Every structure is written in C-alpha cells, then in structure tokens.
Amino acid sequence: MKSYIPPLVLLVSLFLFPNAEANTQLSVSTSASKTPEVQITYPTAIRVEQAVKDGLTQLPLHTKGTKNIPIYWLGAALFDTKNTAPLEATRQQVLQQLIEMGEQSNDSNYIAKLARFSQFLRNIKLGQRINQPIDIDLIRLNNAYNPLINGDFLLILPPRPTTVTIVGSVSQQGELEWQSRISSKEYIAQAGLLNNAETSSVWIIQPDGNAIKQPIAYWNHQAQDIAPGAILFIEFSGLFDDYSTLNNNIIELLKNRAL
pLDDT, tens digit, for every residue of 28-78? Predict the structure, then answer.
C-alpha cells in the first residue's frame, strides 16, 4: 500500500502547518472488499472534486490492469469511515435480533439461512455514504456536489459489476448473474423464499445507495430497472414488538455498503 501527497499540498503543509497533524485521510480502492490501493494525506479539508481527481490520477499508478477500465460511476461512492458508530450499533442490533429469531425456531434449515445472512451483514464494509453523485463531470457542473470534506474517507471507483445480490428472507443468499431484461420476480424465483418472507414487495438498493420499494404482487406490480451491482432485499414479514424496526435497520445498512 502506497501513500501519495501532492507536492503542492506537501509544500504548503511544511511551511504553513509545520506542527499540525493531517486531518483529512483519503483511501482509494476499486472495491470495498480490498485493502485500499492508495492512501492520500491532506493537511486540511478538501473538496469532493479534489478527492475524485486525485483518486482517478493515483489509482491506475498503483493498480495493475485498471488504466483502461471505465469507472462504473453509478457504483462510485465516497464514505465517511470515521463517524460510523451509529451504523455499527445498528449492525450489532440487527445481528442480535437475527440470532434471537433463530433461537425461536426449531427448523435447522431456517436457522442456517439466518446465520448465512448474518455472516453477509457482518462482513460488509460500512461507511456513512456521502449522498451525492461522484461522477467528476457532474461535480464540475454543480457546486452543490463539491462540498468541503474533513476526516477519514473511503473513495470507491469500481468497474462495472456483472451480478446482483439477493439477501433477506430467501433460501439462497448471494450473487446472481445480472441480466438486462430480468425482473426482480425472476431473481426472487431463482433464490426462493422463506416462510416468513414479504411477498408483495421487494427493496432494491441501487449501487448509488438509492433504496426503492418495488410492489411485485399481481394486484400492485410496478416495473423497476435493476442496475448491475444492486442488492435485492426481501423483508421478513410478521415482525412485532422489539423486531418492528429490523427491516428498516437492514435497509439502512445496505444503503451504506460499498461495492
């Protein structure tokens, strides 16, 4: 893992902030599942445009074979990785509730499905998503997309995925091949449903973090495009008392998960 400090930034930090510690850290990667290929240290706050420009410049220098691979801008994202305590608390609450749901069942197959979903949630990289486009051209056209940022951030500049992921109250959690003309109902049919699955709707979390609740019952069906890299979440039905927020909490975690 290599670090890069732009010469001008380094010069300014040496003369104007000789004793100050850097307060903006930017990690850059093609995937949240990888160790960041680039780490950049700045002595002060920066704007989103600079973060994206520096990431685009440095990533090909540190990652073999990525120079000519187009960025999948719908899945590109910037995450605050310092202020994640609320998300981590939500994750722990969800994991505990899934454990308790399993303990209330005598069905070993159902318990195994819950455990697999728990493992998926345990493994995802969480960060507080900066909810805006990361496409450099859009940032240049709209000043609202170019705020100052200060802290620790992870910039994901991914290639275009070839799969979608289906999780929740399904028999087969995991990735399925993305196809342009496949509906959510067809993906769900491939995965199968558990007995306590919600059957009238599905949540689609697009790669940009946009969460869409799609009606899929025969009486309320609405068509919805599903982008490569999207997550389909099938809600658990019949929840009550302390479990009433489980589905919403899971959706919040999935919205703040990077490709």
Answer: 999 999 999 999 999 999 999 999 999 999 999 887 765 667 999 999 999
Let me know how many helices (H) and strands (E) the chain has, helices first.
7, 13
Residues 6+ apart with CB under 8 A from 8: none
pLDDT digits (tens, 9 = 90+) for 176-220: 999 998 999 999 999 999 999 999 999 999 999 999 999 999 999
Q: How far apart are CA 199 and CA 187, in angstroms?
A: 13
259: nearest Cα among 207, 203, 204: 207
| Residue 83 near residue 151, CB atoms below 8 Å | yes
Rounded Cα gap, residues 94 and 88, in angstroms:
10
- How far apart (Å, rounded) are the C-alpha atoms in residues 65 and 31? 14
65's tokens: 């074979």
Evaluated on CA atoms 111, 200, 174, 157, the torsion sign reads: negative
Q: What share of the chain is helix, strand, coil (3-state, %, to 5)?
A: 35, 25, 40
Closest among 176, 169, 192 to 226, alpha carbons compared? 176
Q: Residue 85 corresponds to which tokens in the numbers above?
A: 């305590």
Q: How far, rounded to the nearest angstrom, does the alpha carbon of residue 252 sit from its chain's CA centroid?
A: 10
pLDDT digits (tens, 9 = 90+) for 124-149: 999 999 999 999 999 999 999 999 99
Tell me how far apart the alpha carbons of residues 134 and 145 are, in angstroms, rounded to a whole number: 8
Mean pLDDT within 161-186: 97
CB 255 within 8 A of CB 245: no
Report CA-CA distances (Å) from 222 to 32, 59, 208. Answer: 32, 40, 21
pTM: 0.89
d(CA 152, CA 175): 30
